[in-house]
Design goal:
mainly alpha; 3 helices; 87% helix; 0% strand; globular
């Protein structure tokens, strides 16, 4: 439990990014373009958070950055395909 509370301050912004994104999807359900922009913003926030998180822990490397970019791109493509089909 102590490990979770130790890292909670690092993960709170990430949780906030996703909560704001989910609320944004619900509030702006009428605009596919805004939802796509919101998806892209969430991905950029995720990448930025990952870079800052690993920089603070002094284990930032190009491999870590590429991994965050890869998963953010994968997530964006998934969200884009769902948004464009609805």
């Amino acid at each position: 439990m102590q490990k979770i509370t130790k890292h909670l301050q690092h993960y709170s912004p990430l949780i906030g990014i996703f909560i704001v994104g989910i609320v944004g999807f619900w509030v702006f359900s009428y605009s596919k373009n805004f939802q796509i922009a919101l998806s892209l913003s969430m991905c950029v926030g995720y990448i930025s958070w990952g870079i800052v998180h690993h920089a603070l822990h002094k284990n930032l490397s190009i491999e870590v950055v590429v991994e965050y970019i890869f998963f953010a791109t994968l997530g964006f493509l998934l969200m884009y395909s769902i948004i464009s089909r609805s």
